[in-house]
Amino acid sequence: MFIPSLSTIAVTTFLAASAFVKVAEADVDLLSWDDAYTKAKVLVDQMSLEQKVNVTTGVGWKEGKCVGNTPEITSPYFPSLCLQDAPLGIRYANNITVGVAGINAAASFDREAIYKRGKYMGKEFRGKGVNVQLGPAMNFMRSPEGGRGWESGGEDPFLTGVTAAETIKGIQSQGVIATAKHFILNDQELNRTRESSDADDRTLHEIYLWPFARSVEAGVGSVMCSYNLANGTYTCENDYLLNTVLKEELGFKGFVQSDWYATMSTVPSANNGLDMSMPGNIEESTTAKYFGKNLTDAIESKKVDESRVTDMATRIVATWYRFRQDEDYPELTLDSFDLDNAPYVNVQSDHYKLVREMAAASTVLLKNSGILPLKSAKSVAYIGSDAAVDPNGINACSDQGCDNGTLAVAWGSGSASLPYLIDPITGLSNALGKDVSYKKHLDNWDLEAAAETAKDAEVAFVFANSDSGEEYITVDGNVGDRNNISLWNNGDNLIKAVADANKNTVVVIHSVGPVTMPWISHPNIKAIVWPGLPGQESGNSLADIITGKVNPSGRLPYTIAKEASDYNAKPSPLKNVEYTEKLLMGYKWFDEKNITPQFPFGHGLSYTTFKYSKLKVNASKSSKSPKVTASISVKNSGSVDGAEVVQAYLSFPTSAGEPPKLLRGFEKVFIKKGKSETVKFTLESTELSIWDTKSASWVVPSGKFTLHIGASSRDIKKSANFTFDEALAVYLLRHTQKFKEAQLIRTRDPSLLSNCDAVVDVGGEFDLARSRFDHHQSGFTENFDPCYGIKLSSAGLVYKYFGKEVISNIMGDKLEKGNDKTLDLIFEKLYKVFIRPIDAIDNGISCSTDNLLYTDYTGITHRVRKLNPQWYEEKTEALENERFEKASILVGSEFRQSLDEITLSWIPAKQLVVKGFENRYKHHGSGKVVVLDTFCPWHDHLAGMNEDAILYVVYPVTEGDWRIQCVKKRGAAFQSQRPLPSRWRGIPKDTLRKVTALKTANFVHASGFIGGCGSYNDVMKMADMALKMA
Q1: For residue 247, what is the DSSP state?
Q2: Is residue 160 domain-resident?
Q3: Beta strands at 525-530 and 505-511: parallel, antiparallel or unpaired
Q4: Are 23 and 95 in contact (CB under 8 A)?
Q5: Are residues 217 and 255 in the same domain?
Q6: Which residues have CB under 8 Å from 766's CB, separation 6+?
Q7: Contact 671, 642 (CB under 8 A)
Q8: Residue 647: left (phi > 0), alpha (psi -120 to 50), or beta?
């Protein structure tokens, strides 16, 4: 959010903690989206054009009580909506709670705690009458210098997605609309309103879209588009991102709002998916607006269809209804720009307890040589400006835009005014008690005095920090982004001076992100504690960790490198910021390049120890529901109770082109000393898929997966594979006349192989005459047909030379005797859809290169692989043979199912398609519409029939239910030659009937690939109009 200087705003720092006012809590049962839209339609249909536009347009900066406000409308009534920062607490408000930053929430690796954090924030925003909380943030720490990375979840999509989703669920449980921001690729502050963040579609989907997808799944009510351009177009007017990806692909039902002053146009913004412009005016110095009258004028001049502004208003109103804000919602009591005159409503309750718990749970113990927990020291020293509050006051700088004391929250619109701040000296001194004496030194630049203070203490605590924030505030020459990742305020030299003077030095770092540690090897540094950005209870939560009241369980949500040059990205001054690292962000880059980090992603120590054992993995895959379940036993083998964060990483098949491993699950589990817990993981299509750019869809790649379970990305405790073997080749041979009675021997012994009648997948030779079917040998190049370009596997070899016999033997009388043409069709089709993927998998060929080489229709890979004896099983010959027989039966049943489908369904369908093609001019004079007598698989059969001339296929589903479906472009997976008109897409049935004048029109899909009517006549009229409107 862009905000100018706020020197005119009064800041009240602290009100008595005893003056709490109980605010009514409301666990809200949200309305369904369908019901919310039904209610919204009734209201919006009563609005004039100007009223609908007003619902979408902010009143302007400082023209309302909140940072963002829409105007109230009457006749019909719709209230003014209040939109308010920030992701960690209410900005510009008194008597509120300022908790941990988003980066700390992620560092907790604790779903339940993250949810509770969101819930208490929801209570406070609701208590103040705020409709929309402008958070959580979910951009990435693409580079450690990025100014706003601290607001979000770090460097990993899975962790950021969980943090975002759980926060949203918590906020919205109170009937407050959460905002997923900033959409998208908004990962640096440098030139943020001018630079274009350019990422390929796979990178966009697998990393940067991931947390927004999880947010939509969590039911988020609003999405905020960002300042930057993405691939050359401003995000707030980017049709592909807002409409195709967010609203269609992800199915987002809420409203898209702009970041403050991120609306850059009227017509493109409205037409391309922006629903609400904030704060309303184009910039602070003018009252002119891109929406408001300019949007009304654009509609009246036909540059924007009124149906679009109806959709904009309906999305906003429906979201309001969904969160039941029409039912006794609290009155607004904010006055953001005149805090002293705001009504007194204290919403803090006992939320400080949750803040303290979360701050401790997210503190990471990076290093410990046994000095912690501190039990018996009689004297300590506190050294560094970060040990105490800013001497000018805890809220001395607008939006926390300075770094003069202990760092509890970074700067920018993502911050809030602290109600109080327990600094480290206060928290530790209170916890250690009066029997422990202490000295302090707060001047970071007087190193001699610092050393003098430290030298006689039993333990010296030295504090340092590193800050960042938003680009509208510059702190010590840092314009939002950090200029470097060294410690601020002479921190590195201060730490060395203290360590030189005291043999028991404990380093405490409050930081927005990674820092370099040139002092890391100093022998006197016995522990490093990393509280991050802990919020108002900073000192108390630190004391809980230092004294052992809380056993540390925080984990790093980013990688801390040894050298700044080890990272592969940093804020760029270029107009086009190319995301050249693609999928290799954070630990994935370090893994790929084998760079040893200082501290890896997911790292964090405990005061106890844990042992991992008994990993079990069960994998299954069908075309609809791939699933991997895993369990592992974790024992607390130490002397104190504690929580372990068990992390699951997945290595994809080599052909998938993924980084070495990706986080795909984590569980924080509390285990009493000496006890064990079984930790379970479930990975489904979301976790197992990659984005295939050719088909523009998520696909589960075939090949060998490896599941790793560990305590960090570099501390892997156990791993297990799920893989595939020669079971299909054996099945095929058993359905030939020659080998149907053959005995199976599984061996690599040459003396035994020489006496076999047939040998598959071993032996190092292919000789058809001697029935030797191996493909591993050097120089082997055999393929099914040169047009496929894929080397055969052993199964492919057997199929090529015995496939027709196998098909005939299996299908028997179901095949027309002597019809070689039909047999040839089945033979080739079965190779394409079943055998070819197996050939590709076995040869390590990717299914997701620029040219799609194969598509996996088998759905058997994981189910066969899981039959392999697992690492924990005794691998006897009997067990291996038993499992192999099961695998052969399983893969054979899948082969038979595919054969039945082709023979009994696909082949007969061709006759129906040929008939429809030949009769096409009888139904429509253009010859561009094929009508089928009944639905059947038709896509493949249009090939070779001049299918480029056919644009639509019409067919009945049931009586009184007809479909019109677009023909895809040649070679495309989803892209239609001519989609149905955009103005028909995704609109309600009643609206569609008005727009088309078709009484039985039922729907047109949001992507325009299919539509439906209740009669043949209307569906043909729909086709005719679509042809004429192109």
Answers
A1: I
A2: yes
A3: parallel
A4: no
A5: yes
A6: 772, 773, 774, 775, 777, 780, 782, 797
A7: yes
A8: beta
Q: What is the pLDDT of residue 840?
A: 79
Q: Specify the CATH number for the domain of residue 669.
A: 2.60.40.10
pLDDT of amino acid 577 = 98
CA–CA dist 130, 134 (Å, integer): 10
State the Cα–Cα distance between residues 59 and 333, nearest whole angstrom. 18
Q: Which one-letter amino acid corresponds to residue 861?
A: T
Q: Which region among 228-242, 247-261, 410-424, 846-860 has the lowest average model confidence (pLDDT)?
A: 846-860
Answer whether residue 1 is part of any domain: no
Last residue of a domain, one of 701, 722, 743: 722
Check whether residue 427 and residue 410 sit in a common domain: yes
pLDDT at 862: 54
Tell me the CA distances in angstroms from 503 to 442, 497, 498, one per residue in order. 20, 11, 9
> 733 with 800, same domain?
yes
Question: pLDDT for 931-975, tens place per residue?
Answer: 998 888 888 888 667 656 899 999 998 888 899 999 988 766 667
What is the model's pLDDT at position 623?
A: 45
Tell me the residue range of the domain where 619 lies. Answer: 608-722
Within a domain: 16? no
Contact 283, 290 (CB under 8 A): no
Q: Which of 110, 187, 198, 259 is catalytic?
A: 259
Please check the confidence at residue 9 and state whether its pLDDT lies above 60: no
Other beta carbons less than 10 A from residue 896's beta carbon: 14
Selected residue with higher pLDDT from 324 and 617: 324
Q: Does residue 801 carry a pLDDT above 80?
A: yes
Share of the chain above pLDDT 90, in %: 72
Is 391 domain-assigned? Answer: yes
Whether the bond between 76 and the residue before it is cis, its omega within 30 degrees of 0, is: yes
Instruction: Give the C-alpha separation, 430 to 935, whole Å.
Output: 77
Choose the final residue of a domain: 686, 706, 722. Answer: 722
Residue 296 and residue 168 in one domain? yes
Residues 510 and 629 in one domain: no
User: Across residues 558-569, what is the average pLDDT?
Assistant: 98
What is residue 728's DSSP assignment? H
Token duo for residue 343: 């009504």
| Whether residue 391 sits in one domain with residue 266 | no
Q: Tell me, yes or no, whether 765 and 847 share the same domain.
A: yes
Q: Which of 611, 644, 649, 643 is nearest to 630 (CA)?
A: 649
- Residue 78: per-residue pLDDT: 98
pTM of structure: 0.75
> What is the average pLDDT value for the chain, to the nearest integer?
90
Residues 315 and 357 in one domain: no
259 is catalytic: yes
pLDDT digits (tens, 9 = 90+) for 164-211: 999 999 999 999 999 999 999 999 999 999 999 999 999 999 999 999
Counted domains in the chain: 5
Rounded Cα–Cα distance for residues 541 and 353 (Å): 10
pLDDT in tens, 341-358: 999 999 999 999 999 999
Amino acid identity, residue 505? T
801 touches 733 (CB < 8 A): no
| 3 state SS of 682 | strand
**Alpha carbon of 362 to those of 106, 600, 636, 644, 841: distances in Å?**
8, 16, 20, 13, 42
CATH of residue 512's domain is: 3.40.50.1700
